[in-house]
Each structure stands twice: as structure tokens, then as C-alpha cells.
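Recall the central idea of this unit: under ordinary conditions, the amino acid sequence of a chain determines the structure it adopts. In this exercise we apply that idea directly, starting from the sequence alone.
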Amino acid sequence: MSPNGALNGPESCVFCAIAAGREPATIVREWADVIAIRPLGEVTDGHVLVIPRTHVADAGVDPAVSARTMACAAELMAQWPAANIITSRGADATQTVFHLHIHVVPRAAGDGLPLPWTPQQATGGAESGR
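Accordingly, the structure predicted from this sequence is:
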């Protein structure tokens, strides 16, 4: 593992490549240290990923980078009357790209998009996590 908590380094990270302009993406907003892009598989209209330009594996690695990225996500979230902010740490928590990214997911009543920990997603076993 690298010093910044990454399973692999920035040279093989797709989000680093996007932030550096080496890979294509639809950029929604840019700050000096953070970008917001449209994900390939957006789950609702307006869904964006907020990504620091610095390679940090997840929100638990560098609190300052995480806080700055969250502040940018909050700016984008403010434009929606209802939205989720979601990030994950580790494969067991559904993280698939090991570069910090925060989902801003606009929501609407009856959109049918359950969160992973809602009863709609439970498939047997303990639903309460006790």
C-alpha cells in the first residue's frame, strides 16, 4: 500500500487520469483542487462525482483532502431540494475505484432509488445490522 493509502498508485488511477486531462470525462464544475464529473452510470438526472485532484484512496486517508472535497460536494448539493451525498471506504463498503470520490445524487419523491441499507435492498439475514 502506498503512503497515501492507495492500493495502487496515481499512475494507474482512472480518476487521476481524468483530473489530469489524460482521460475523457464530462466535467460539470472545477475548483483548483477538486473536479465534479458526470459518472458513466448516473443513477438519477444530475448525479455527479466530486473528486480531489490529489490521489487519496478514500475519505479515511487524508482528513484535509476529504473535508475540502466534501465542501465542494456540499456546494453542488445545495442546488437540489433533496439529494444524497455518498462515499465509501473499502471493497466491503462497495468502493470499486480506490480514489476518493463523493457521489451527489439528486432525489425526488417516488424515484424508486433505494439506498443500500434500506429494507428494499435487504435480501434475508439481519436487516438492522445488530
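The domain at 10-109 is CATH 3.30.428.10 (HIT family, subunit A).
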